[in-house]
Write a structure and sequence with these properties.
84% helix, mainly alpha, single chain, elongated
């Protein structure tokens, strides 16, 4: 579990750096420049260590450079603010693959309620698209404080709530199926 959080932190490091620097300086251009430099340094550090870089790392670097560069050239923060939406759209598209979630679930779930797990995978895809739409809508306003709240509280909170709902639903569904099987 610790490695999952480390990988997520690594994948979203430039966004985290951007938020920290923005809150410290209240300056979008400085935060954007530092985020770009941080993303480049992260890739260089990984290459020097001989670490294999995944698709998400390269995609994130490309997005940071392109969208951050557009922000610096135009002095318009909306470009860099849209970056998390692109990631959510890509992840949502991947989640549209039937049964993607099954490999991440314990055997009790995959053996007892695989149909519900498949449905949950599609529900997660929809959630990613909805969150991306919200990110784009808020990025379009250019309101940095609202965007910072959205990406640091709403995006995370929605995923935690969805996980909790899924966990409880799976427990109830599995319990019901196991009790029905015991009666039969």
């Amino acid at each position: 579990m610790k490695s999952v959080f480390a990988r997520l932190a690594s994948d979203f490091l430039s966004t985290i750096v951007f938020l920290v620097i923005y809150f410290a300086t209240d300056n979008v251009l400085i935060a954007t420049g530092v985020a770009i430099a941080g993303a480049i340094a992260q890739v260089i550090h990984a290459r020097v260590k001989g670490a294999e870089l995944g698709y998400m790392t390269w995609a994130s670097l490309g997005l940071v450079i392109v969208l951050g560069g557009a922000t610096l050239l135009t002095n318009d923060p909306r470009f860099v603010l849209a970056k998390p939406a692109i990631g959510h759209i890509a992840i949502g598209a991947i989640m549209l693959k039937r049964g993607w979630m099954l490999r991440y679930l314990p055997p009790i779930v995959t053996q007892t309620i695989p149909d519900y797990a498949t449905f949950a995978g599609y529900a997660w895809a929809v959630l990613m698209f909805v969150l991306a739409g919200g990110t784009i809508a808020i990025a379009a306003t250019g309101d940095m404080k609202l965007w910072a709240f959205y990406v640091s509280v709403v995006l995370l909170g929605a995923k935690i709530a969805a996980f909790a709902i899924q966990y409880v639903a799976f427990r109830v569904l599995i319990g019901g199926r196991l009790r029905a099987a015991a009666r039969a």
